[in-house]
TrEMBL record:
<keyword id="KW-1003">Cell membrane</keyword>
<feature type="transmembrane region" description="Helical">
    <location>
        <begin position="21"/>
        <end position="41"/>
    </location>
</feature>
<keyword id="KW-0472">Membrane</keyword>
<dbReference type="InterPro" id="IPR003838">
    <property type="entry name" value="ABC3_permease_C"/>
</dbReference>
<feature type="transmembrane region" description="Helical">
    <location>
        <begin position="362"/>
        <end position="385"/>
    </location>
</feature>
<feature type="domain" description="MacB-like periplasmic core">
    <location>
        <begin position="20"/>
        <end position="241"/>
    </location>
</feature>
<dbReference type="Pfam" id="PF02687">
    <property type="entry name" value="FtsX"/>
</dbReference>
<feature type="transmembrane region" description="Helical">
    <location>
        <begin position="275"/>
        <end position="303"/>
    </location>
</feature>
<dbReference type="InterPro" id="IPR025857">
    <property type="entry name" value="MacB_PCD"/>
</dbReference>
<keyword id="KW-1133">Transmembrane helix</keyword>
<feature type="transmembrane region" description="Helical">
    <location>
        <begin position="324"/>
        <end position="350"/>
    </location>
</feature>
<keyword id="KW-0812">Transmembrane</keyword>
<dbReference type="InterPro" id="IPR050250">
    <property type="entry name" value="Macrolide_Exporter_MacB"/>
</dbReference>
<comment type="similarity">
    <text>Belongs to the ABC-4 integral membrane protein family.</text>
</comment>
<feature type="domain" description="ABC3 transporter permease C-terminal">
    <location>
        <begin position="283"/>
        <end position="395"/>
    </location>
</feature>
<dbReference type="Pfam" id="PF12704">
    <property type="entry name" value="MacB_PCD"/>
</dbReference>
<protein>
    <submittedName>
        <fullName>ABC transporter permease</fullName>
    </submittedName>
</protein>
Length: 402
């Protein structure tokens, strides 16, 4: 009986192909939207976590101001001094290394090719604080750091644009108005999940950058590596107390600097992307409800159109249960058809959008199974009322219907 009922339902759907597709359109759009939003949200979250993990674990970033910018409308807070770096390194327990940074922008030139990039002045401690291995060459020598020699380590983006992907170590290029010997190249990190190309960078001794580009010994950023055996929260609190003392911040005065834990940054960004994904997914899921209502409306029309057919079936011996099952199977089949088409369209959309968003393609089987299952449930829920109405028709009244 079930096989015959299923066959009758499929024949009815195929008899009105265009109407069937239009009926399932709401389910198609809903499934495609939900799967696409959830998958892209997870891909974005994974990209953010990957970018943060590339900075390394147990790292504290210290900047002047009350946030990543100046904060507030008052005067710019003072930058850090080299003595602050030494104080943190020597006086705070659990600190493995402190890497001061001074940044500037300049144009790098090599044999007619030029590229605008970021110059990051730091010390050898930079490579102790965060894991960024070199693909070739070496790091700074202590004498080069002390003398502020014009030597540099360059990222992959700079290598590709200036040296066309060829060997860069041992070559001399110009950065702004100075010549710089390339002593190393960095491994590829890729795009940051929160924007920016991490490989578009030139790293030089901090004294060279301060002398040639910034014109001061001020430090705008410190990266602090924390020993795994110590709590980053405890080390962060100790550094805060030390800097408040050194910067003469007393009583209830707010700090004119901020300390960020990379894990906190990761958790914040991950939480934000997850929340936005949930909101957008909830909005997209509404179209599934709309699609279910569309199926119910068309099935009600179908019951009206086929009233005489239903009367004949009931008159020659079909029971109400068989009629109900036939219309219910039609509704579920329409809904599941919409679910399958929606899943296919979702994968096409995801594959196209990950390239534009520059995130990795992630296939999430759970959301695909759940979305397809929900489409089937919607067919049952919204198809039951029309099916019940068809099964409840009086055979005599149905045969009289024109």
């Amino acid at each position: 009986m079930l096989g015959t009922t299923f066959l009758l339902a499929i024949r009815s759907i195929l008899r009105h192909k265009l109407r069937s597709i239009l009926t399932a359109l709401g389910i198609i759009i809903g499934v495609a939207a939900v799967v696409t939003m959830v998958t892209l949200g997870q891909a974005t979250t994974a990209a953010v976590q990957k970018s943060i993990s590339a900075l390394g674990t147990n790292i504290l970033q210290i900047r002047p101001g009350q946030g990543f910018g100046r904060g507030g409308g008052g005067p710019r807070p003072p930058d850090f001094e080299p003595a602050d770096v030494e104080a943190i390194r020597r006086q705070i327990a659990g600190v493995t290394a402190v890497a001061p940074q001074a940044q500037a922008s300049a144009t790098a030139i090599y044999e007619g090719a030029n590229w605008s990039t970021t110059i990051n002045g730091t010390t050898g401690a930079y490579f102790q604080v965060q894991p960024w291995p070199l693909t070739s060459g070496r790091s700074f020598l202590p004498l080069e750091e002390q003398a502020g020699k014009s030597v540099c380590i360059i990222g992959n983006t700079v290598v590709q644009n200036l040296f066309r992907g060829g060997e860069a170590v041992g070559k001399r290029m110009r950065i702004g108005a100075i010549s710089c010997d390339v002593i190393g190249t960095l491994s590829t990190r890729g795009q940051a999940g929160f924007g920016g190309d991490q490989d578009d960078i030139v790293i030089m001794p901090i004294k060279a950058v301060q002398r040639r580009f910034t014109g001061s010994r001020d430090i705008r950023l410190m990266l602090v590596g924390v020993d795994q055996a110590y709590s980053t929260a405890v080390v962060q609190s100790s550094i805060e107390d030390l800097l408040r003392e050194r910067r003469n911040i007393t009583g209830s005065k707010e700090n004119d600097f901020n300390i960020f834990d990379t894990k906190q940054i990761s958790d914040t960004l991950t939480g934000t992307t997850t929340l936005l994904t949930s909101i957008v997914t909830a909005v997209a899921a509404i179209s599934l409800i709309v699609g279910g209502i569309g199926i119910m409306n068309i099935m009600l029309v179908s019951v009206t159109e086929r009233t005489r057919e239903i009367g004949i079936r009931l008159a020659i011996g079909a029971v109400a249960r068989e009629v109900l099952l036939q219309f219910l199977v039609e509704a579920v089949a329409l809904s599941m058809l919409g679910g399958v088409i929606g899943l296919v369209l979702a994968q096409i959309a995801i594959f196209s959008l990950v390239g534009l968003m520059k995130v990795d393609f992630i296939f999430v089987p759970q959301i695909n199974v759940i979305a397809f299952g929900i489409s089937a449930v919607i067919g049952v829920v919204f198809g039951y009322f029309p099916a019940r109405r068809a099964a409840g028709l009086n055979p005599i009244d149905a045969l009289r219907h024109e």
